[in-house]
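Support request, please re-run this one:
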Amino acid sequence: MTAAVRAVRARGVAFALALLALLTGCASAAPAAPTLDDAVAERRAAIEAAERERFDAFVASSSARIAELGVPVPEFQGVVAREVWPDAVAACIDQTDPRIRADRVDDRLTVSYFGMVGELYDRSRWAIESCTAQFGVAEPGAAASPGPIELAWRFDDARTRVLPCLRGAGLAAPSLPSEGAFVTAEAAGSPWNPYALLQGDPAGLQRALTLCPPSSRLIAEREAAP
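Re-run finished. Output below.
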């Protein structure tokens, strides 16, 4: 073997190793499939954004009253669970204006500012409305529609968990559409149904839902978790 041939082969081996390293690097850099936690985090972020938008609208519509009363501009406090909301608002009202009686009755908030008139009444009303607006409510399932992260997770969940579970249990399962078709169906309000072939078999459908729960159930349970 001549020196020239050895040099060519050496360059070929070096090129192959460099290409392999490049491909390996690309593979390792590929984004991981989104997780259930990612999907729930996206939902919660969407809820918080909607509640922040509602709060900003309140501040904008109340700017004249805030200036007239000379009271501090309220600040958004984020979202809290439904069961926490009455206590959070009551504490805010008590701190803002201790003359107002704010109490929690079951899951509701009651307020009393009896005897307050004129500017005192206006300030009391502002305190109540301000504290009510400052806390959003993190209602499970409140997100208007699945976002791109959730859609990607739902598709991956159907591919890696739901369909293998159904087939492993000997239950009829349809073919999974392409990811594009899957997302299009969701956007159109007619999501792909992995249990479609079991609609005429109540016992089989119940078994499927028990053994291989739908993606929506997993999201609802995780949303409701503390």
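The longest helix spans residues 36-69. Helices lie at 3-29, 36-69, 85-96, 118-134, 148-168, 179-187, 202-211, 215-224.
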